[in-house]
Every structure is written in structure tokens, then in C-alpha cells.
Design a protein that fits this description.
The protein folds into two domains: about 55-145; about 150-530, no CATH class. A hairpin with a 2-residue loop joins strand 14 (about 225-230) and strand 15. It is α/β, with parallel strands linked by helices and about 525 residues long.
């Protein structure tokens, strides 16, 4: 059977609506996005170009301000060096008024580097801060510089030294010798240690012990005085250590007893006893000069508290003096002298300026009660020993020409040490400071105390220089005051006047020598070697 073509199945036809192409729409969208990104980049570039000039100006202003601040600080120091009356000039506002330097406006602030306060007659180091302003951009530069005191003196008690020994100095274990600071981060000066005979091998640092910024005295008659590489070279032997002059009790009015006694109440007079003890209940305040002497031993037990608010308190034991856990505070202007004939032991003792706690005394910074030795520990000749041990925290100078001195355990000492043989051990910390505040010391390589060839003037070298006659002769010889511990001797006024110009020139040379040392590398001496 034949089918007609009309009977065959046919594929239905669909009619496609006429619409725009999807590909053409996507291309348009990409073009619009690219255009937006391009416009954003152009706007960012234009904005950056608009800001680039002020940024460059601020960078340039900052650079100018930094340079101007540095120049201003240097200018202030040069002005101070050139003017003998810089203190009065400062007080009159010389450094308080702003001044122009290049395109900058500079202001200066001059303070005592140790205290942070305004300079005084006793200031020996200045902190100069110059702030420069250029179009609102500021930069500050800080400088420190040494200056002479208003009334400079020659210190005959090695006040510039941290530790000076007749025999040997050993720093071992985890002990540390660090610069004393009147406020954190501001050291009073370089640490000077050494042996009186100049033997370099007499000073040793062992184990994990640490010293910072240390110079070692070296007597070398083959070289001119000066310092290099951590050594302070001196052309002649230094004189011996002078023992402090310890007051004696007034036997005409003193309480004298041949028995041992407990001293728990305030004595109205000097005391001389055959053995003496301050019990735990002793809470005593000494307002005037007082000498407490034991013909045998003396002990301050844990809990005893002594306050020295005025005058000088002398605790003097013919044999042993032991301060175990007791506390002694010393007010500004007051003094304390500890002396023993055989052994002086501080075990867990606290001896600090008034208002300072034991915790504060164990910290980095403890302000001294005065520029001089407020507290002195000493031995009465012989081969006695001084031990600072346990958790003692003391602010004092130890001066024992023939003594064996040890600071050990967890003890903390703020001060200096002059002795026969010295050892720092355990975890002891010694924050060493010059005790006097005077600009010139016997270990300084330059100054009025030395001849042109660098040797000490003969009036300063005798073992009897602690006597009043020798001090007076030394003062007249150099034409300026001399200081030995807490004694100051003025020269004859006519002598001082006639030698004034020469003295100022020698002081200037001494200051230049100190600045040269400070301007060099900071030396850390550990494990017997200097490392920069």
C-alpha cells in the first residue's frame, strides 16, 4: 500500500523569538567594568599626586628639624663650655627662649643628668635636649656633657673609682658590677676599677659575672697618661688608701660600763660597754652626734630599727660588729660610720637613705642622701674582713685599706669599695657610683692635681695626706679646695686667686679627657676580655 507524502510524520516547526545576543550583552558589561576600574585608578593616581607634595615637604621638614636639633644641642654645649657663668646665664633664661636656626625654631631644655632637675652648684653632668620645629614638624636630640661644679675640688679619696684594691679584685659566679644611676637609664660615669700598683692581672672577671662600661687602671711609666681600649693609663703609682677618721667617745660625759648591755632606749650620751646588743624591740632615733662603742662585740638583731636624722652616729666594735636583719635609715645631711676591729658582717641588713624601702634599695636606682659619703663601713686596721651577705640591701661606701671585703649571695650594694682584697660572688649586685660629686679625682689622668708630665703633685702622694696639715698644704699647692671623705679644706684665698686661670685650664683639660673616654666605645668586660 502506497502512502502519500502527506501521510508521512513531520517535525514540528518552532518559531524562535527574535531577541538580542547574550554575548553582545556580556561584552558591554565588561567594558563598563573596565571603564570604572580605569576611572578609579586615574582618580587614585591624581589623589596620590595631589598628596605627594605635602608628604615630601613633611619628610624634608623632618630631616631639617633633626639636623637643626642636633646643631642646637651642640651649640648649647659649646656655649656652656665657653662661659664660666653658664649657670647664671641659664637661670637668666639664656636657654629658655626659642631661637632660629636655618629654617627651624629651636628650644632648649638643660637639666642635671643625674637628677633630672635644674642644674645646681653640685651638678657634674648635664642633659641637653634641643627640640626643633619646622612648619609644625618637630624633632628632638639629646646630648650629655660633663661640667665642673660651681666650686670644684680635688677628691683625695679616690671618689671617681668604683672599686680600688691594694691587692686583688675578683668578680665571679653571677655577680655583676653595674653603673649607679640617680634615675633609670642615666649613668653617672664610667666604672673605674683597679689595683693601686697597677697590675692588670690583679683584676679578674670569671664565670658568668658581668661588668658594664668598665675601665681598668694601669700604671705604665712608658706611656703618656690617657685611656684606650678599656685601660686608664697613669704614669705613676697612686698613693695608698687613707682610712676614715672615726670619732671617739667623749669619756668625760659618756656612759661607761664594764658589763654587757642591751641598748633598747635612747642614750642621752655616748656609750662605752663591754659588749653591746640592740634587741629586736629597739626603735631608736639619733638626732645628734653619738658614739656607741663596744670593747668586745656588737650586734643588731632582726627587728631592731635605728634612724639617724641628724649628726653622725658611730657604731664601733673592738672585735666583731654584726647587723643581722636590722634596719638603719639615714636622713639627708646625717652620717653613719660602722667600724669593727676584726669582722664587720651585714647579713640581711637594710641600710638606706630615709624614705627608701628595702625593695627600693634592691632596685637599680637609689638616690644618695648627699654627694658625700653618708654611710661608711670600715675596719680598724689589721687583716679584718667585711662581709655583705644574705639579702642585704645597703647604700654605703666600704673603705678598709687592709681589709678583705666580700659582697656575696643576693646582697645589693649601692656605693663604692676601697680595700685590700675584694671579691664579688654569688648573685651579688654592686651599683657603683662616685661618692663625692666633685669633678676631679686622683685617678683622673688630667687635672690640677698633676704636673705637666702627668705625675701627681708631691703634696698628694704621701701616706699622711689625711692629716689636716697635709690637706692644707695640698690645697695651697694646687690653689683650690681638697676633699677627703667628709672633710673639705679650702686654700689660702690669695693663692687660689693667683692660680685661678691655670686651674680653669687644667680643669678644662680634665673634662676633655673625660669626654674623650665617654665618646669612645662602651666596653663590656666579661670572662677576662674586653668586647666592644
Amino acid at each position: 500500500m502506497t502512502r502519500s507524502t502527506n501521510d508521512l510524520p513531520t517535525r514540528p516547526r518552532t518559531t524562535r523569538a527574535r531577541r538580542g545576543s547574550p554575548r553582545r550583552g556580556a561584552a558591554l558589561l565588561l567594558v563598563l567594568i573596565a571603564l570604572a576600574v580605569g576611572l578609579l585608578l586615574v582618580a587614585t593616581w591624581l589623589d596620590g599626586r595631589r598628596e605627594s607634595m605635602p608628604v615630601a615637604q613633611r619628610v624634608a621638614a623632618g630631616a631639617v628639624a633633626r639636623q637643626a636639633a642636633a646643631s642646637g644641642a651642640d651649640l648649647a654645649i659649646a656655649t656652656i663650655d665657653a662661659e664660666d657663668d653658664w649657670r647664671s646665664a641659664h637661670q637668666a633664661g639664656r636657654f629658655d627662649a626659642a631661637f632660629g636656626l636655618a629654617s627651624a625654631t629651636c628650644t632648649l631644655r638643660v637639666t642635671d643628668a643625674s637628677t633630672g632637675d635644674d642644674p645646681t652648684a653640685e651638678t657634674v653632668a648635664l642633659r641637653v635636649v634641643c627640640t626643633a620645629d619646622v612648619d609644625g614638624v618637630q624633632a628632638s636630640v639629646e646630648r650629655t656633657t660633663d661640667v665642673e661644679t660651681a666650686n670644684p675640688a680635688i677628691d683625695l679619696a679616690f671618689g671617681e673609682t668604683a672599686i680600688l684594691v691594694e691587692d686583688g679584685l675578683r668578680i665571679r659566679d653571677q655577680a655583676a658590677l653595674l653603673p649607679w644611676t640617680a634615675r633609670p637609664g642615666v649613668a653617672t660615669g664610667p666604672l673605674v676599677v683597679g689595683s693601686l700598683d697597677g697590675r692588670s692581672e690583679a683584676v679578674s672577671v670569671e664565670g658568668a659575672a658581668v661588668t658594664l662600661g668598665t675601665e681598668v687602671l694601669l700604671v705604665d711609666d712608658r706611656a703618656a697618661p690617657g685611656s684606650d681600649g678599656g685601660w686608664r693609663r697613669l704614669p705613676d703609682r697612686l698613693p695608698g688608701i687613707v682610712a676614715p677618721d672615726v670619732p671617739s667617745p667623749d669619756l668625760d660625759t659618756a656612759l661607761v660600763t664594764r658589763v654587757r648591755m642591751d641598748l633598747a632606749v635612747m642614750p642621752g650620751m655616748d656609750v662605752v660597754a663591754n659588749g653591746l646588743r640592740f634587741p629586736a624591740r629597739a626603735k631608736l632615733t639619733f638626732e645628734n652626734d653619738r658614739v656607741i662603742r663596744s670593747l668586745t662585740d656588737m650586734e643588731l638583731v632582726d627587728g631592731a630599727r635605728l634612724a639617724v636624722t641628724g649628726g653622725t652616729l658611730v657604731l664601733d666594735a673592738a672585735e666583731d660588729l654584726v647587723i643581722r636583719g636590722a634596719t638603719i635609715s639615714v636622713a639627708e645631711g646625717a652620717n653613719l660610720i660602722l667600724r669593727a676591729g676584726r669582722e664587720l658582717r651585714l647579713d640581711g641588713a637594710t641600710i638606706v637613705p630615709a624614705g627608701v624601702s628595702a625593695a627600693d634599695a634592691a632596685s637599680e636606682s637609689v638616690a644618695p642622701t648627699s654627694p658625700r659619703d653618708a654611710v661608711i663601713a670600715t675596719l680598724d686596721g689589721g687583716n679584718g674582713a667585711i662581709r655583705v651577705e644574705g639579702r642585704s640591701a645597703v647604700v654605703m661606701s666600704i673603705i678598709a685599706p687592709d681589709g678583705d671585703i666580700e659582697v656575696r649571695d643576693d646582697a645589693v650594694l649601692h656605693g663604692r669599695i676601697l680595700g685590700g682584697d675584694v671579691e664579688l660572688s654569688g648573685r651579688a649586685l654592686v651599683y657603683a657610683r662616685p661618692d663625692d660629686g666633685q669633678v676631679i679625682g686622683l685617678t683622673t689622668p688630667a687635672g690640677p692635681h698633676r704636673e705637666d708630665d702627668g705625675t701627681l703633685v708631691t703634696e698628694l702622694t704621701g701616706d699622711d695626706r689625711g692629716t689636716a696639715a697635709s690637706l692644707s698644704a695640698a690645697a695651697d699647692r694646687i690653689g683650690m679646695p681638697v676633699v677627703l671623705l667628709n672633710d673639705t679644706i679650702e686654700p689660702d684665698p690669695e693663692v687660689a686667686t693667683s692660680r685661678g686661670l691655670n686651674i680653669r685650664e687644667r680643669i678644662r683639660r680634665a673634662l676633655e679627657e673625660r669626654r674623650r673616654r665617654r665618646g669612645g666605645p662602651r666596653w663590656a668586660w666579661a670572662n677576662g676580655a674586653f668586647d666592644e
